[in-house]
Design goal:
Blueprint lengths: L9 E6 L2 H5 L2 H14 L6 E6 L10 E5 L3 E4 L6 H11 L9
Parallel strand pairs: 1-2
Antiparallel strand pairs: 1-3, 3-4
């Protein structure tokens, strides 16, 4: 029987506070979810909207766990770049590794 690899889930938290929402965090969230689905990462990467993170002047704000990677001023157009960076860094497991 083959050895089964257990992957740690990666969670991408996107601020949904008023200030971040004004700066298009809803669109960022939608693009991240679409990018996760496109890359077939739904089983290992999850995107969640959160309450205000308290860094309103820097928003939209994103925190990625594990690793507590913070991204301030994230733009919807950079969602693919953010996800690709997580895959390259090993924070988000590639679906082929599961």
């Amino acid at each position: 029987m083959g050895k089964r690899k257990t992957a740690q889930e990666c969670v991408v938290f996107v601020c949904a506070g008023d200030s971040c929402s004004d700066r298009k965090s809803r669109k960022l969230y939608k693009r991240l979810v679409e990018g996760i689905e496109k890359r077939k990462l739904s089983g290992s990467v999850r995107c969640v909207r959160t309450d205000c993170m308290g860094r309103c002047e820097d928003g939209p704000n994103v925190i990625v766990c594990p690793g507590a990677i913070a991204v301030c001023g994230a733009k919807p157009k950079s969602a693919d770049e953010l996800l690709d960076g997580l895959l390259k860094s090993g924070v988000a497991p590639d679906s082929s590794e599961l």
